[in-house]
Amino acid sequence: MKLLDSFKATVAVLAVAAVSASGVPAVADIKIGASLSQTGPASFLGDPEAKTLQMLVDEINEKGGIKGEKVQLILYDDGGDPNNGRTFATRLVEDDEVVAVIGGTTTGTTMAMIPVFEEAEIPFISLAGAVVIVEPVKKWVFKTPHTDKMACGKIYGDMKARGLTKVGLISGSGGFETSMREQCLALAGEYGIEIVADESYGPKDADMTPQLTKIGNTAGLQAVLNPGFGQGPAIVTRNFKQLNLQVPLYQSHGVASKSFIELAGDAAEGVRLPAAALLVADKLDGSDPQKAVVVGYRDAYEKATGKPVSTFGGHAYDAFMILVEAIERAGSADPAAIRDEIENTKGFVGTAGVVNMSAEDHMGLDLSAFRMLEIRNGDWTIVD
């Protein structure tokens, strides 16, 4: 059964402009925008996001669209460049006249686009991780991934349960990494964690041995946490193993894909990180409300693309579903009505967790939405 058949016949919304068999472009009644990092350093995030949207769009339009109205996706590749993101955001509003936008693969591109959508009063669902996207609440801005602040809390809770209180940080220097470092520093005291070392690396660094050596020589060190995404965390993990540091290593949800395990190789064994249920779909209990959702999405994605699923494509799936249901409840494609219904999302079961939004919470997830995973024998294992 296709993905959309296994959920309400309401799935999905976005569409790549379809071309009919005669070669004449199809007429789209609902225009949705997206600016994603399909290429560039964040392509491992943006590519599955784009593939997910396109897959879902193909299905919804095959079934006649949303309540009989076809949908068109206006999709731009910002390459992870915030300047491109802002340019495309402006184009989506002024030239393409979209009614809503899904996108912002990275925190940097998201923050560059937010002012455009806030001024234009167009609902925007970000796929990036930093808490600053939704705190403080911005009227027209929402997000689907867990926040960096939540990741710090989940990791610290696990450390505390293991009796690990003296922690060294090694962080990337991008928008997400910088934000997560700040959140982890701010939350440490609340969990009884002492940050005994604090190092960083740049996006082009190919060896983090000097920073890790300094951290490893810190008196009393009990664990290391690496806020980062992309190739940086894989390098950190390999260097960590080479130095034979005898303490646990934690990564962020920014590496929650099989590609991290492949890049880090055997060095990934024993690494822990918080992630969505999607990565362990088959290992969920049958009574888990997320199981049908994550298994259905995973199977459909892997069949359509021939590639393993990642939580990043799952963020796009959740945004897509939330938006479609909001349009259906609103009964129109009016941006203000859509915004109000996104904010009214309650009990939505997605790949990230069960979403309950409100005027005070434009993400709608709590720590229970995170699963603590450990890499064992080259695969994910649930430890909490």
Automatic annotation (TrEMBL):
One GO biological-process annotation of the entry reads:
amino acid transport
**InterPro entries reported in the protein's UniProt record:** BCAA_transport, Leu-bd, Leu_Ile_Val-bd, Peripla_BP_I
The answer, when asked if Signal is one of the entry's keywords, is: yes
* Sorted UniProt keywords: Amino-acid transport, Signal, Transport
Q: Which residues form the signal peptide?
A: 1-28
Matching Pfam families: Peripla_BP_6
User: Would I find Cell cycle among this entry's keywords?
Assistant: no
**Origin superkingdom:** Bacteria
- According to its UniProt record, which protein family does this protein belong to? Belongs to the leucine-binding protein family.
Q: What is this protein called?
A: Putative branched-chain amino acid ABC transporter system LivK
Native source species = Polymorphum gilvum (strain LMG 25793 / CGMCC 1.9160 / SL003B-26A1)
Upper lineage ranks? Bacteria, Pseudomonadati, Pseudomonadota, Alphaproteobacteria, Rhodobacterales
